Amino acid sequence: MEKRLKSSIFPPHYKFKVEEVIEMWVSSGLILQRENGLKKQEDIARGHFNTLCRKSFLSLVPRELHADPSDDYYVMHDLMYDLACLVSSEECSRFRVTDHNTNIFPKVRHLYIEGVSSKSIDIISRSNYLRTLIISHEENSIQQELVHDLKKAIKGRTSLRLLKLCGNGIFGMNKAIAELKHLRYISMSATDEPNLCNLFKLYHLEVLRIQKIEKEEIVSFIDISNLPHLQKLHLPKNASSRIPHIGSLTTLRELNGFSVKKKDGHKITELRDLRNLQKVIVLDVQNVSDYNEASSAELDKKTNMKVLSFEWSSDQARIDDRILNKLVPDSNLKHLVISGYNGNQPPMWMENPYLSNLVHLKIDGCVEWDKLPPLGSLWTLKHVILENLPKLKYVGRSSYHSGAYSYSYRGKWTKGPGSDGLP
């Protein structure tokens, strides 16, 4: 029951992403590990989410035909929302800057603040049992006096496990956040502090999401040695590229920007020991030295991998096709992106039904490809997005099947025999 009630802290018609909800439930301590320990907390949480959808607490927001399924949103029905607010008022609370009533239950655990003001800061300061704090501020700036008071209020909430700062102007918080030793989850729309070392001292941290770092180009060296429990790391590219020896984070499950470099601590072999990876975006693949180094990443041994993206960021006069051929993912992969690849042909592991569980495929900027890899035997494939393929001329029988999946393509091609079903 508590999982569905926690949704009442959000505004009406708030759009949830599945993974967002699951992360928040787990980080807040709402998901208990089964006694036998065989089922992961994320899987238990996903089961609870599916139950809420099945019982009409949550409904899927319709999306466009070619939209990425991972961007699906859900909303809580109005009647269910009203009921949840009524029943959960002692545990969950939401305060808007326009509210006149500042009374909240003294033992509220989950709090959503809309707008930073002296009243909302006072509410935070009086909430001594908080496990979840979400602050949304849409104004472009906050008075410095309020920023100082907000730092002090946040610093004193030592029981916090989840902190989410959304919107504009909530800057200078890293040092105060570093005092919250029990934090499992941090999400910030932006930070103006290029030195992230304070955040990387939180021993229990499991999820870190920062969308934007002001003056990102001067982000300093990042030490990750004190994050043995980190599972999901989402940072802007220039910040993530300054993290050496990412391979020491053996609990990592999501990495949204691993930038390959030719120097030690940044080579693609850092991925070898990350056996729990479920999602990774590999940037600057052109810096992989040779096919032996590519093979040493052992991507094919990451059986939990569901989302994989390869991105090249510069033109190369000579591309060794063997490098991509050796970056073989596990056959359980569901979502694949190949972007900016200048090789002459698709990797061999796309030439057969090896990726038999693939659901979503995006190919972008593979400028030398004149034909698609054969997709006809991939019966699970539902979405194919093709962009910036200037030499693509031919789509034949092997690139389609009688099952239903959608193509999105910008350009022209020649249809081969049996390809009438394609646009």
Tell me what the structure shows.
By secondary structure, the chain is of the alpha/beta class. Among the domains are: 1-87, Orthogonal Bundle (Arc Repressor Mutant, subunit A), CATH 1.10.10; 89-243, Alpha-Beta Horseshoe (Leucine-rich repeat, LRR (right-handed beta-alpha superhelix)), CATH 3.80.10.10. The protein is 19% helix and 20% strand. It has ten helices and 18 strands. It has helices at 2-6, 18-27, 41-54, 78-87, 118-126, 144-155, 174-177, 237-240, 291-296, 321-326, and strands spanning 58-60, 74-76, 92-96, 110-114, 132-137, 162-167, 185-191, 207-213, 232-234, 254-259, 279-283, 307-311, 335-339, 360-364, 383-387, 394-395, 406-409, 414-415. A 14-stranded parallel beta sheet has the order 3-4-5-6-7-8-9-10-11-12-13-14-15-17. Helix 10 (321-326) links the parallel strand 12 (307-311) and strand 13. The protein is globular, with a radius of gyration of 24 Å. The protein starts with a helix and ends in an 8-residue tail after the last strand. The model is unreliable at 417-423 (pLDDT under 50).
Which tags fit this structure?
about 425 residues; alpha/beta; Arc Repressor Mutant, subunit A; Leucine-rich repeat, LRR (right-handed beta-alpha superhelix); 14-stranded parallel sheet; two-stranded antiparallel ribbon; 18 strands; about 20% helix; globular; disordered C terminus; Disease_R_plants; LRR_dom_sf; WHD_DRP; NB-ARC domain-containing protein
